[in-house]
From TrEMBL:
Lineage: Eukaryota, Fungi, Fungi incertae sedis, Zoopagomycota, Kickxellomycotina
Positions of the HMA domain: 1-84
Protein name: HMA domain-containing protein
Entry's Gene Ontology BP terms: copper ion transport
GO molecular function: copper chaperone activity; metal ion binding
Natural source organism: Coemansia brasiliensis
Assigned keywords, A-Z: Chaperone, Copper, Copper transport, Ion transport, Metal-binding, Transport
InterPro entries: Copper_transport_ATOX1-like, HMA_dom, HMA_dom_sf
Family under the similarity heading: Belongs to the ATX1 family.
GO cellular component: cytosol
Length: 99
């Protein structure tokens, strides 16, 4: 499972709230972490993330992760906060997934 990370210029609770609101409804809240302290937005990928858009735009399987990454980046940028792209990472399998 991939983890998408973005360094976002957030200086107050209003900033982190704006980012959270922008992503709410588009991203499963259980997969979203907005850290004001670290100025970091982390989203753990899941199969339903942008599923309809991927189908509509006929995204090739090898391009799905990049599509999701860019879609999330666009949503965060629309808040007006400066965003520094960070590398995608592979998330370790959780205990539940291993069982």
């Amino acid at each position: 499972m991939t983890v998408f990370k973005y360094q976002v210029a957030m200086s107050c609770g209003g900033c982190s709230g704006a980012v959270t609101r922008a992503l709410k409804g588009k991203v499963d809240e259980k997969k979203l972490d907005v850290s004001l302290e670290k100025k970091l937005v982390t989203i753990t990928d899941y199969p339903e993330l942008f599923k309809d858009e991927i189908a509509e735009e006929k995204v090739k399987p090898e391009d799905v992760e990049k599509f999701k990454y860019n879609k999330l980046l666009d949503i965060i940028k629309k808040t007006g906060k400066a965003v520094t792209e960070l590398k995608q990472e592979e998330a370790p399998a959780s205990v539940e997934e291993a069982a």
